[in-house]
Amino acid sequence: MTPLRDRLLDDPFQGYAYAYPHKTAYRHFEKPHPLKDLWADEDKDRLFLYLHLPFCEMRCGFCNLFTTTNPRGGQVSRYLDALERQADAVHDALGTFRYSRGAIGGGTPTFLTTDEMARVFRMLRAAGGLRKGIPLSCELSPATSEPEKIAQLREEGVTRASIGVQSFLESETRSLGRPQKPAVLHAALQRLKDAAFPVLNVDLIYGIEGQSVATWLQSLEAAMEYTPQELFLYPLYVRPLTGLGRKGRDPSDLRLEQFRAGRDFLLERGYRQISLRLFRHRDCPVEGDGGPSYCCQEDGMVGLGAGARSYTSAVHYCTEYAVGRVGIQAILDDFIGRPANDHSFAWYGYELNLAERKRRYLIKSLLRSDGLDEAAYADWSGNSWELDFPQLNELLETGLAIREQGALRPTLEGLERADTLGPWLYSDVVETRMEEYELA
Fold it and tell me: Is there a contact between 168 and 219 (Cβ–Cβ < 8 Å)?
């Protein structure tokens, strides 16, 4: 592991550690794992459901998600057929289970028609899988936020609407390879505000070519008009095979300055910083929304759809991953054509030994404002973090974390360096696999 002080000399935006291990560390299993065996000894009373709908009206220049545009030949319908086969197989393998929270993402779920979305909700509610009343998030884009779709989401019990805005300035979204008319954007946001979802989230991006600190704050100010309970502030990354990557674009060198300006702007307006990216208003009901509690450290995640990941305590699995259109289409075709029984197995993923599970625990804790609960970690792992990871003392020495009230917590400086700290905590095996991965 490279000393942290050496890492801190580099660009603070080194890698988005939203999950560990990263999907580029996944490989085909030597033998497929029967899902019944994977889930047999897991706690299935508080599962997180994630459904992936990999279709969009356009491909944004920064996007490296598993999604495609202009589906033809009934591909959406055939994809939903495959989803139903997969859901039946997965729920059968789970046996007795309960979802405590859910999210529908993509892609852009609201790219689907209202009839197609109704089919999705019927499928998820089958066999008691997704009950009304639990916290449920759904992603939208401005162009697909029509009144009838917003009304449908409210009727179906969606409690959190998340819209990808990125910027309120047309020149900046054009620079991102995302043509977006301000009138369409504002109309969509007003409809979402009027619909009164318990939580409205707005995604914004900083580091765009031509974006200044002043225009970045202009977008944040515009977002305040719609009183979002949450905002995700994403630093721009330009990744291989994306539109911006093919054009040789780079993020601006203002990202750290822009982040700090945005953070201070939101803190002054009643928002709490939860992580580098997430800011939540102090009045946001998400922590007390009536749903069963869910803990990402202990509870599993069930992913449905091509590109969706599932997590048991020791095995993470999904379909293969690609960014380029040809690779994505090949994976979609494979998913759509799979016989029902194939969905009863995990074919591709990562097996976590105890050391990797401990690293995941640290990464999921230290990159959030609550930090690492020292007693909870010791109880879960059987050791203190000082014995397992003495290098974490570097966080204290560099002022990136403090110890208080039984927790190792990141400071403001630690949170703004989350994209340095995450990769710093990766194991050598995961780093090597990521470096060896050939993106398609």
Answer: yes
Q: Please tell me the least confidently modeled range out of 63-72, 77-86, 330-339.
A: 63-72
* Domain at 21-288, CATH homologous superfamily: tm_1862 like domain (3.80.30.20)
Structure tokens at 113: 């028609």
Q: Hey, is 235 helix, strand or coil?
A: strand
Query: Are 371 and 409 a contacting pair, CB within 8 Å?
Result: yes
Q: What is the CATH number of domain 355-432?
A: 1.10.10
| Domain spans of the chain, in order of start | 21-288, 355-432
Convert the pLDDT of each residue in 246-283 to its tens digit: 888 989 999 999 999 999 999 999 999 999 999 999 99
Instruction: Classify each residue of 305-321 as buried b or exposed e, where b means 16 or more C-beta atoms within 10 Å of its C-beta.
Output: bbbbbbbbbebbbbbbb
CB 59 within 8 A of CB 312: no
If one counts every other C-beta atom within 10 angstroms of the C-beta of residue 73, the result is: 7
Q: Residue 232 has which token pair?
A: 């995700």
* pLDDT score, position 246: 87
